[in-house]
Amino acid sequence: MSKRDELIAKYATDLKDKCGVTPDLAFLTKVVIGCGPSIYNADSATVSGTDAKELETVKNNFLVKKLGLKNSPDLDKAIDAVIDQYGRANRNKYRAVVYYLLAKHFKKESVYK
To answer: 63-67: long-range contacts at Cβ-Cβ below 8 A with a sequence spacing of 24 or more?
Structure first.
C-alpha cells in the first residue's frame, strides 16, 4: 500500500467516524491528489480551525481560486460549518478532509473531473 493510499484510508476513516459522512472514495482520491505534496508535510497536512489567517487561506486558495466561488460571507459560514462538523475539539483536521467537505457542500465535485 502506497503512502497516499494509507492517507486516503485515514481520511476516509475521519470522514466516517468524526464527520458522520460516508466517503465517496473516488472523489476523496481526486481531492487528495489535488492537494499535492502538502499532505505529506505534518504542518500543511492539517488545518487549524482556530487560526483566522489559515482559514482565510483556505477560503482564498481553495474556495475562490480552486473551486471558482465568489468571495462572500457564505464562504466563511461554510468553513465554520465544516470545522463544526469535523469537531472543534479535534486537534487534527486534515486538509484533504476539510477540502472534501467544502467541495461537497458547494456541490463542486465537477472541479475534480
So the answer is: 63/102, 63/106, 66/34, 66/111, 67/102, 67/103, 67/106, 67/108, 67/111
- What is the Cα–Cα distance from 98 to 93, expressed in whole angstroms? 7
- Give the CATH superfamily of 3-112: Jann4075-like (1.10.238.120)
Cβ neighbours of residue 28 closer than 8 Å, sequence gap 6 or more: 8, 11, 12, 15, 96, 100
Q: Write out pLDDT tens, residues 97-111.
A: 999 999 999 999 999
Q: What is the spatial distance between Cα 27 and Cα 50, in angstroms, rounded to a whole number?
A: 27
- The C-alpha angle with vertex 94 and arms to 53 and 64, in degrees rounded to 5, equals 50
Q: What is the distance between the alpha carbons of residues 80 and 74, in angstroms, rounded to a whole number?
A: 10
- Tell me if the pTM is above 0.85: yes
Task: State pLDDT tens for residues 6-27.
Answer: 999 999 999 999 999 999 999 9
